[in-house]
Design goal:
Elements (H helix, E strand, L loop, with lengths): L7 E5 L5 E8 L3 H4 L2 E9 L4 E9 L13 E8 L4 E4 L5 E4 L5 E6 L5 E7 L7 E11 L5 E10 L6
């Protein structure tokens, strides 16, 4: 990789019943003038993962560059996990021997696209990804959630 992030920050802040982690990087500053920060909160029992992706200027203020601040937040899904939509249009993630999870996001319609999984020993494999297309000026904070709806051991 050439010209990646020069400044990466992270912090952990655990509280009662929740584990929190926040990380940011400046990898988009030189080209787009924007910082990406992701805050994750995992419930104590591990059944809910909530995230907030913030796309802001280096001083922390929201982007005002309307029309020139397109954002695509990507969630790459393992090839063994299926993605389908329930009758309400929500995205469900499930596999043969895995828990079932519901993916939701506030205000943005998720799109499922093809992807490639490179981490396996057998080489690259086809996979899919959930993509959230928006603009930083319209959604400086993108709030999403993964909630376990069915556990393979029967505990939800």
């Amino acid at each position: 990789m050439i010209g990646g992030p020069r400044k990466v920050e992270c912090r952990r802040d655990d509280g009662a019943g929740v584990h929190r982690f926040t990380a940011s990087h400046n990898g988009y500053v030189s080209r787009f003038g924007l910082i990406h920060e992701r805050a994750l909160s995992l419930s104590e029992e591990g059944a809910v993962l909530e995230g907030i992706d913030r796309i802001v200027r280096p001083d922390g203020s929201p982007s005002t560059a309307v029309g020139d601040d397109a954002v695509a937040v990507r969630f790459h899904i393992h090839p063994d996990i299926d993605i389908y939509r329930d009758p309400e249009g929500r995205h469900i993630l499930a596999g043969e021997a895995t828990d079932t999870w519901l993916f939701t996001v506030e205000g943005i319609i998720p799109v499922v696209e093809e992807s490639i999984f490179f981490a396996g020993l057998g080489g690259p494999r086809r996979s899919r990804q959930i993509v959230l297309y928006t603009t930083a000026s319209e959604y400086p904070e993108i709030r999403w959630r993964l909630r376990r709806t069915h556990a393979i051991n029967g505990n939800s």
